[in-house]
Design goal:
about 260 residues, Ribosomal Protein S5, domain 2, alpha/beta, elongated
């Protein structure tokens, strides 16, 4: 029986070499957001389970220093969740290859696609692979941290696409609905990697932040209502002219 189980397991691992995995991530370059297509596949069955590090997880199309950092963050998060070591070597390609990729925007989609390539998460059906865009920085305790430029990243989403984003980024991502071309998009915040894993396993759900009106806080102080100012016609006229022309205003107090 042990020999049969071993052969069955070997067939399962060999089967992983035939599977294709694709996810969409996003990253910021300057002020513009870009979609990054993440491809992955298992390329070799290992003799024994190995660590989630650059010796057995090869990433092409990413800055060398960034590869080591992202794999270290993912390795820490996997250790927190007690995810077993992979039994296959994994190759990941980030397209387009000529776009410089650094930062932490791709942590979340890379973690998910690594689990798919290792056979620990089911692959998405091909017809819905392009429906999701994942972005977020991973902490070594498994938390998903906010990333800068989330609005620019969400802006490049196509109608009907679903964005899985860090909790706290959902409000700015929701602003894309004010612009035509984002009809049917959804924004699904998550605060922990475990939540996303359970979602891809089909054992948990992520709530669409756009199903309820999002309340925005006003961080701009309320301007003085000139209608409450008595007299001071020349001062008010100077302030209006300054504001209309985008000029600075120097106000002197005479005692």
């Amino acid at each position: 029986m042990a020999e049969l189980r071993a052969k069955s397991r070997q067939r399962e691992l060999n089967d992983l070499l035939q599977r294709d995995h694709t996810l969409n991530g996003g990253m910021l370059l300057g002020l513009d957001g870009f979609i990054v297509e993440i491809q992955a596949r298992a390329v070799e069955v290992l003799k024994e389970p190995r660590d989630w590090d650059s010796r057995y997880i090869k990433i092409t199309g990413m800055a060398k220093g960034a590869v080591k950092e992202v794999l270290n963050r993912i390795k820490g998060a996997f250790a927190k969740l007690r995810i077993p070591k992979p039994e296959v070597e994994i190759l990941i390609n980030l397209a387009p290859a000529d776009l410089f990729k650094g930062g932490a925007w791709l942590d979340l989609p890379l973690a998910v696609i690594m689990l798919q390539a290792a056979g620990m998460l089911p692959d998405l059906p091909e017809h819905i692979e392009g429906e999701y865009i994942l972005l977020g920085e991973l902490g070594i305790h498994g938390e998903i941290r906010r990333v800068p430029g989330a609005l620019s990243l969400a802006y490049v989403a196509k109608p009907g696409q679903k964005l899985i984003v860090p909790s706290g980024n959902e409000k700015e991502c929701a602003l894309i609905l004010a612009k035509p071309g984002h009809e049917g998009c959804g924004v699904y915040p998550a605060s922990l990697l475990e939540e996303v894993i359970q979602f891809f396993l089909g054992k948990g759900t992520l709530e669409n932040a756009l199903t309820q009106p999002i309340q925005f806080e006003n961080h701009i102080p309320t301007a003085t209502d000139f209608g409450l100012v008595r007299g001071q016609k020349k001062a008010k006229r100077a302030a209006v002219i300054s504001a209309a022309g985008g000029h600075n205003l120097l106000r002197l107090y005479m005692i």
